[in-house]
């Protein structure tokens, strides 16, 4: 079984997808982490992020190991553990430049599909990002568009970052500007065909995990349909 969870920044995709994977004993893939890993590597090497060819070449060369264990998430790039580094503001501020590079997307989508294929032998996977239902795994048995009001998403992200470490303008940049940039290459504001929209503004994390887990257990995996 493949469960796709797409949506804007701060809607709760990562925490919800991890919770559902835990609840149902599935693997978990954070595709945003793959874009962050390429960003980290390009920044580390001092590449011009507007040089799309050089950045795409870096994406193809990068040796990337990404955990699909919902209880033990790590990202290793060319032998360096970058699990924490990819969440730093210096990466969040520029990651959209890498995520809007179409050659980078081509390479990372290829890698994401390989990870998803492998997870099928482990019972399935919950995959979260922006283009999972529409591009990466169009055959997903369950497709969820997770949304929340902009104010709620900014408040959640603000609470997550160390108190006082980020100004209101920086928060807006991380949520509103980034979503606007990212939506030039992926449609994650409107539900695609067959996707269920869940507005998490007034739901707790636990409630969202409950709803998605229930929908998943009501969905018969395609392999069992015959
Ligand atoms: N339904 C919810 N209600 C309140 N807070 C939530 C909810 N879902 C997630 N959060 C919190 O909001 C923050 C952002 O969630 P995250 O899963 O990182 O979102 P995304 O992956 O969509 O950017 C986290 O601190 C998370 O714990
Ligand atoms: N499938 C995906 C996943 C993420 N992205 C982009 C969108 C974001 O700007 C970056 C990082 O994604 P991530 O999900 O970590 O972002 P958040 O901070 O959780 O909002 O990558 C994408 O274009 N396609």
Automatic annotation (TrEMBL):
<keyword id="KW-0808">Transferase</keyword>
<dbReference type="InterPro" id="IPR027417">
    <property type="entry name" value="P-loop_NTPase"/>
</dbReference>
<dbReference type="GO" id="GO:0036430">
    <property type="term" value="F:CMP kinase activity"/>
</dbReference>
<dbReference type="GO" id="GO:0005737">
    <property type="term" value="C:cytoplasm"/>
</dbReference>
<feature type="binding site">
    <location>
        <begin position="7"/>
        <end position="15"/>
    </location>
    <ligand>
        <name>ATP</name>
    </ligand>
</feature>
<dbReference type="InterPro" id="IPR003136">
    <property type="entry name" value="Cytidylate_kin"/>
</dbReference>
<comment type="similarity">
    <text>Belongs to the cytidylate kinase family. Type 1 subfamily.</text>
</comment>
<dbReference type="Pfam" id="PF02224">
    <property type="entry name" value="Cytidylate_kin"/>
</dbReference>
<protein>
    <recommendedName>
        <fullName>Cytidylate kinase</fullName>
        <ecNumber>2.7.4.25</ecNumber>
    </recommendedName>
</protein>
<keyword id="KW-0418">Kinase</keyword>
<dbReference type="GO" id="GO:0005524">
    <property type="term" value="F:ATP binding"/>
</dbReference>
<keyword id="KW-0963">Cytoplasm</keyword>
<dbReference type="GO" id="GO:0006220">
    <property type="term" value="P:pyrimidine nucleotide metabolic process"/>
</dbReference>
<dbReference type="InterPro" id="IPR011994">
    <property type="entry name" value="Cytidylate_kinase_dom"/>
</dbReference>
<keyword id="KW-0547">Nucleotide-binding</keyword>
<feature type="domain" description="Cytidylate kinase">
    <location>
        <begin position="3"/>
        <end position="216"/>
    </location>
</feature>
<keyword id="KW-0067">ATP-binding</keyword>
<dbReference type="GO" id="GO:0036431">
    <property type="term" value="F:dCMP kinase activity"/>
</dbReference>
